Structure formats: structure tokens, C-alpha cells
## 1
Amino acid sequence: MDAIDDATFERMLDLAAVAVSDDERESLRRDLGRVLESITAIADAPVDDLPPTYGVSTGTRTRADEPVPSLDRAEALAGAPQSADDHFVMPSAMGRSKDS
Amino acid sequence: MTIAEHIAAVAGGASVRERAEAALDRVGDDPHRAFLSLDRDWILADAEQLDARLAAGESLPLAGAPIAIKDNLCQRGTRTTCGSRLLEDWVAPYDATVVERLRAAGALLFGKTNLDEFAMGSSTENSAFGPTSNPRDPSRVPGGSSGGSAATVAAGHVAASLGSDTGGSVRQPAAYCGVHALKPTYGRVSRRGLVAFASSLDQVGPFGATVADIAQVYDVIAGPDAGDATSADQPAPSAMEVLGAGVAGLRIGVVRSCLEQADAPVAAAVEGAAERLESAGATLVDVGVEHLDLALSAYYLIAPAEAASNLSRFDGARYGLRVEGRDLAETYRATRARFGREVIRRIVLGTYALSEGYADEAYVRASRARTAICRAFDSVFEGVDLLLLPTAPTVAFALGEKTDDPVAMYAADVFTVPASLAGLPASSSPVGEVDGLPVGAQLIGRRFEDTTLVRAMEVLSS
């Protein structure tokens, strides 16, 4: 597994949507490099001809596609940082909203 | 005090409340930090309700036995923190299916136990609320991620607890703390209400002071659940009913390569366990399992990939903490910056494993290796009923010893991740000591043959 270069590292932080301080940034990058180096066995493994396994569930059965009682809306909203009018409330995706 | 002894005491006239008080007194000020929540008033109120139900003639198989719950399992009305600042004040609005089933069977839900943040870790040092220490030696880790659940049983507070095992998180702490634990077959126990870490691997499992305690809890929690799409649609055979069945006639494969990898005294203790199984009538054969050398690498790509996806839900919108930013994107980043170091490490690693340009060589390749490991187990189980190997390569290490070295920390899972990847049932049993620290022997069984493990666990405990 290749070490992560600068551009890739920044892109991963962006995709992961985590802010990392300058101090933490270097140690995180160093740790990721060490972890990727430690798992190089996978790169040489003779597995090219095998199908991937994404899950090991067996003997499952889907239920009928019918509504069943679920979590009460008010209870679901109670754990949220902010809600209004039966909805979760978040900051504007396009910058500060007028009423924020 | 075992669950059976508790049931006998209650049948003999003791109240659940007085027994709950005694358990709370045993915890005292919780010197090992096994618990993140332990509300005396709530527990005693619940105990009184259980006394009332018993007095009314209700049949409660667990008769108010106190059982501790890992704090990544939802328990209605209680904080469910996952050991994270992001969920520090989040109160679960419903019961996990396993919690529901314990309540129905008359368990006294006895506090929420400490864990590595979002179950990511092998030492319980990644909890945002401070580490748990090992009751057998408080300078040592209890293992992880279910370290609190293992420690509370090892300390004698309760006879049983629930943990979750993604890559070894019930088996490895059980080994380090000297208690019994069982990771059921994937799909045997509902994951509904277990806060997801890696959904194709996560499985709830019990810790117990004795194998009978494990069996009693397993019988309550195992079985189909329409609330979990990965729950197997078949009844779970009773573990209690196989107690006493012994291991005569079973073929047990000793995984020689793992014994050679472990510290010599650990390997010697596991060899001793093999001899006990043989003395009880099992046939031992040395076996090799192909591709075990790929398991740790595959696990540390697949589990972080699934974690990166699962933990995307913690965005400051729906649960717990929000750190306000200037706009939505900055709010996401600022909120998620409150994850601990290990969680961020795994999210970024998992993001890498799944991202365009890298996924084929990382996540997909690891998933192909997973196929190789599954097939290797299928092959070896054509000739044996169980596998025996160490749970971990060493005994419990010192607090702080590996916190700055993720690679060394991950290596503590080297013997537990293979069964997780294959979805197989696996257990840990205390089988000896090295310098006063417990050694765990791991058994791995065929899919859905969890009770065969229980038979062998009982022999190892005798």
C-alpha cells in the first residue's frame, strides 16, 4: 500500500469532513503511513480471481414491505441539537442564512 | 455470585432490591472506571419493579439478576455515549433488541460500561471519559473495546454483561481480564440498537463469570429479529441445554501457526487447554488455516471503510453534539473534529480505502482476501468441529504502552479478526496465568454451531 502523499491526505480529510489541527495533522499523517505500510500483505495476496465478500449474512429473510410502528418523531427530534416544525435544523448549506 | 446463585437467593426470599444494593456496594466508587453510567436511584427503582413483578407471580427467568450493558447499546431513557464526546449527553429513545429481551426476561439492567470510542480499540484507552483498568492488575489495560463489560465481571460486581465484538472486542478483553465470553455467529443475535461501527462484522455477545452465565444470557438474546435485516431467520438452539454434554467425540483442530506466533507462556497455557479437551474425550489434530496472514490487513481496511460510512451520520444534525460553523460544511468539520484520535484515524483510513482510485486496491482487494479466509475456514471445518488457538498473543499489556503505536495496538487483534471476517462463532475462556495475569484460549466453530463452543468452554472451565 503506497504512503499517502500531501494532496491525497488533504483530499481524504476533506472527504471525511473532519477538521484537524496543525499539530494533529502531522501525527495523523504519520500514523496513517505506518498503518498502510503494515498492511502491505494485501497488495501481494493471490486473490485476484476471487469474488469480494461484502457480508456474511446467511439465512436471512426480508419482512413484508408494510408500514410498522417506528420511532416517534418527537422522540427522534429530542436527541438533535436543533429542531423546529418537526424537522432537524442545520446551518445554511450556502453560507449564513438571513435568520441565523 | 453467578446468575444461578442469584436466582436461588431470590427464590429463597431475598429481594432483588437488596441484591441490587449489594451489587452497587461492590462497585463502590468504581475504582476501575468500568462504568460510564450507574445511576443508583434508577437501578433501585427498577429493582423494586422487578420485586413487584415477581411478587405478582410473573415468570422472570433471570429473576432480577444484574447485567451490565456496553455503552454502545441503546437503553431507553439512558445516556448512550459510545465513549464519545459527540454523544456525551445523547439519551437513547428506544431499547436495543438485546436490551428489550433482557428486560422481558427479568434482568436488572445494571449500568452502562466503558468502551473505546465507538468500539474502536483494543484497550479501552480510547474512551473520551478515561480508560478502564484491569481488575487483575490495575496498571494493565482490560483489553478492548468492551473493557468495561469485561472488567465489571472480573471485579465480581455482576455475573454477566453484554459487549460487542467487531474484530475481537468481547474475546480479547475476556482473555485479558480472565472471564468467559462468546461472540455468536454473525446473524445469531440482533444488532438493532447497537450503534454501528462495521456492520458486516459487529455482533453482540455476553461476558460471564461462568459458562452457565454465558449460556443463560445467550439463550435470552439469541434468535431472529425482524428489526435487523442481517438477523438469521432460524431459531437459536439453547446453550443451557448443552451444558454437561461434554466434548467426547468432537474433533478439535489446534491452529499450530498461531501457537507459534504467541508468547511462549501463552502458547503453553493453550497447549494445556488442548490437553484438557483431549482428556475429556475430544480428538486433537494439528491444523493449518490458509490465509490467516491476510486477516489483520483485510480487517484494517474493511472495518475502517465501514466505519467511515457508518459514522458519517454524526454530522451535528441528528444526534448529540453540534459545533457551529459559518456554514454547513464548516459545521460538519468542526463537529466531527470532536471525535477522538483513533476514530479520526479510522475514518480517514476508511475514506482512503473507499475512495476513487484506491478502492480497487484497498477495500475491494481486502474483500477478496476475506473470501479467501472464509473459504479456508470452510475447508478446515470439513475435518474438525472446533478450532483452538490463543485469544491474544500476549497477556494484558500496561496502560499507555501502545497508545502511540497504532500498528502495535492493532496486532493485539491478530488472532481474533479471522473469525470476525468469516462471521463464525468464537469464544474466549480463561485457561491459565502468566505472572498472575490471565491467559485466554479461543475456540472457533462452524457457522450457527455456537452451542458446540459452549460445550467445549464448559470443559475448559472445569
## 2
Amino acid sequence: MQYVPNIRIVEMPCSGTIDHRVLLQAFEDGADGVFVAGCMEGDCHFQKGNYRARKRVNAVKKLLDEIGLGGERLEMYNLSAAMGPRFAEIANEMTERVRRLGPSPLKKQSAGTMEKEGDVA
Amino acid sequence: MIIAQQKPIKDIAEMIADCKKVLLVGCAGCVTVCLAGGEKETEILAAALRIMRRLQDNPLETVTYVATRQCDPEYIATMDNLVKDVDAIISLACGVGVQYIAERYHDKWVVPALDTKFIGGSKVHGVWEEKCGLCGDCVLHRTGGICPIIRCSKSILNGPCGGSQYGKCEISKDVDCAWQLIYDRMKALGRLDKLMEIQPPKDWSKSRDGGPRKAIREDVMIG
């Protein structure tokens, strides 16, 4: 099993823990594209985690379109932990898609810390 | 609770187009429950606005904060030290919160991120429905617990109109006729006679017709 070396894997306990903010942060931190790999539909250990993940991914895709980054840079896939070759295939497929789209336009500027949590203690 | 929904992000971005640093203030009250302006939504909006502005080569600095309630001035005061160096404040509260913030910070550009929609409840997770017309003079004890003010499209007080067909309102087949619901429930309760009682005309001065309203409880006032 071989796949392109440019992918950074962020492990989550369940795709259902995927949050809009995590996805947006990946893009703010310079990711050219993000894909969420959830379990096969119907196979979620927590019953609905992967369905919920897909809904959130779709919502963030729509948001990315609205703000001009493009929803194509984000995708949701379903595969099991035993499907290594399929993972490699998806990794290559997504890499090809992102290559076609080009580097993230957010990389034009350094991904500095432009965010701050309000602290009024 | 008050139900609100976020405005289109392009509209919000336009309101702060000339700002370099903004404070986004969420509210832990109603808008957290209806998933429009809580901590999560505040951070998502901040991230989206930052990305949008970086794409325009005009970076935006954001500060986020969530007030316990924006409809209580004492909680607005807790963010005094956050507003000093920002060009604008984006409130993710209902219209009450936006106004309390604007009242406290006279020299700040305060903008709403949400459209305040109605008073309602959660039918199922992700679906909210209007249930109260805020008329100021509740009639639910006479109508089987079903509000004719807001659930009847015409706010009729004496029974269904000619547009009621098969239990639905003429405006949409998805809208129940409130008066059909009222009749059915009163019948089931064995209280149809209550509907026959003559009622005086409703006093709409207790609603918005009387101008902005105030509720006062002198026994709990301090000082």
C-alpha cells in the first residue's frame, strides 16, 4: 500500500467528533485540502457519528464556497479501518484534486496568530 | 426562547469592511440553545471572517468572547477591557444584546450577526417553531393551550376563517389551522362550552400597539 507523502493524518476518536472549527482551523493553518475519513455508513460504533460528520462537512463545504476558499477543498469519505488500499486510493484522489485546484490562497500570507480568546478574568 | 439565525456571512463581512480588529461577542442564553450565537458559532464566524479577509489580502484580527447573557447590562460590563482597541463589535445575540452593547459603548461600531426571528421552541433538534405572539395578555387558558395569536395566520380570536380546510391553513398545507387544533382539543377535554363564552375585544394596547413595553417589579428593585 502506497500513497502520496504529503498527507498529515489527524486522528480523531470518531468522525462524529469533527467540528466546523477543526476543519476551518486546518485551512487557516495552511492545509491545501482536507478530507475526513469516517467509518462505513451503518458501521458507526456510536451509531450516527459518521452521518453527523458528513452533515458537518457539507455545511463547512457550503461555508467555504461562501467565503471564497471553495468547498472542493474539503471532502468526506467512508471506509473501514481494514481498507488500506482504499485509503491510499482516496489519499491519491484527493491529492490530485487539490493539485488541480492549486495551493491554498491562504498561503500567500503567513498563518500568523490572528485569533485571540477573550480573557476577562 | 428567542430564536435567531445568522445573517449571510457576506452581509456581516460588509458591515465590518473597514475594520482591522473586531470583537465577536456570543451569548450563552437563547441563541446558544438555538445554535445561532453560542461559543461554537462565535468561533466559526470569527474563523470564517478571518479566512475571507485573508483571501482579500486584508487580514482581520478577531477577539472572541461569550457573555453569560447579553440582555443583562451587568454581563455586558464584563467585557469592558476587550472593547478598548477594537474597531467594531459583532454581536451574536438577539436584537436586545446588540442594543445593550451599543448603549454601553457609545463610540463603538456595533453590528448584528443574527436576524432575530421569533419566540419559539425546538420541535426536534435543528427545527425551531414559533409558539408565542408576545401579545401581553395570554389567552391560552381559553384556547386549550394553543395560541391563536401566532399560530393562526390571521390571529383570529373567534374561530376558524373560510381558509381552513381539512385541518390546514390556506397559506400552506404544512401549516395547521390553529382553530381546528383548538376546537379538537377543547372537544377532547369536554370544554367546548368554554369556546361559547362571550369575550370582550382583546386589548391590543398590551401588545406592540401600545408602543415599547416595560415590565416592572418594584419588590425586587435594588436601591
